[in-house]
Amino acid sequence: MNRNEMIARVKAEMPERRWTHTVGVMETSIILAERFGADPVKAEQAAILHDVAKYWATSRMEAIIREEGLPAELLAFDKELWHAPVGAFVAERDYGVTDPAILDAIRYHTSGREGMTLMDKIVCLADYMEPGRDFPAVQSIRELAEHSLERALVAGFDSTITYLLQQGKRIYPLTFAARNDLLLTIR
Ligand code: DGI
Ligand code: FE
Ligand code: FE
Ligand code: FE
User: Fold this and answer.
1) Looking at the domain assignment, is residue 174 inside a domain?
2) How many CB atoms lie within 10 A of CB 90?
3) Distances from the Cα of 80 to the Cαs of 56, 77, 145, 150, 166, in angstroms?
4) Half-sphere exposure of 163 (CA within 13 A, CB side)
5) 28 lines ligand 1 (CB under 6 A)
6) Reduced to 3 states, what is the DSSP secondary structure of residue 27?
7) CA nearest to 75, candidates 166, 180, 164, 170
8) What gap in Å lies between CA 27 and CA 74, rounded to an integer?
């Protein structure tokens, strides 16, 4: 599928404000890819699709998780996590994406994981710091991202973990694994 067709189809899956966010993630992913030596075309493609399932009904995401063999333990954690692995599945099935690096960047853009690839880091960080984002830590994350993907991502995960603690929510183990692993690489 060509870029324009992909953009038109993804845009139709979400409200205007979420598409604006997606454009911000696309632009930021390209900047980070150029800054840190990744393929900007692939980074943009992952960004276009990263939230493709964000507005799907919970029941529709749950059906894919159960029927397509995605990690069932997700169902015991916050529903906000589900659109990422479901999005990777949809990117492959409905948009014809085959590149595992792109599919993984979509799959892990919310949770992170141990051993995040350069592409995983770029899309996850772009999602935190795109120009439309406004939360207390965002300016400091943008400053850290001038020099270090890893330091910026740790700050991002710290803010998410803090938020989840304040909300009394469960925390998905991959998020701890991602943060622990990133900390080892920046010491
Ligand atoms: O889809 P977006 O809103 O652009 O951003 P995202 O895909 O990073 O989703 C972030 C939401 O996921 C945020 O509100 C926190 C929530 N969430 C719930 N449980 C977890 C979690 N995020 C992480 N990293 N880990 C969790 O265990
Ligand atoms: Fe998302
Ligand atoms: Fe995120
Ligand atoms: Fe997003």
Assistant:
1) no
2) 21
3) 11, 8, 25, 23, 16
4) 11
5) no
6) helix
7) 170
8) 30
ipTM of the complex: 0.97
Residue 187 has pLDDT above 80, yes or no: no
pLDDT one-digit tens code per residue, 19-76 = 999 999 999 999 999 999 999 999 999 999 999 999 999 999 999 999 999 999 999 9
Residues 124-139 have a mean pLDDT of 97
Q: Is residue 7 part of a domain?
A: yes
Mutate to test the pocket of ligand 1, among 23, 28, 51, 78 (most ligand atoms within 8 A of CB): 78
Question: Domain containing 113 — which CATH number?
Answer: 1.10.3210.10
**DSSP symbol at 81:** G
**Which residues constitute the domain of residue 71?**
3-133
Query: DSSP secondary-structure letter at 63?
Result: H
Ligand 1 pocket residue status of 177, Cβ below 6 Å: no
Provide the token pair at 187: 């010491």
Query: How many domains is the chain partitioned into structurally?
Result: 1
Is residue 158 domain-resident? no
Q: Is the CB of 54 under 6 A from ligand 1?
A: yes
Beta-carbon count within 10 A of 164 CB: 17
Other CB atoms within 10 A of residue 163 CB: 13
| 128, part of any domain | yes
Residue recorded with tokens 């980074």: 43
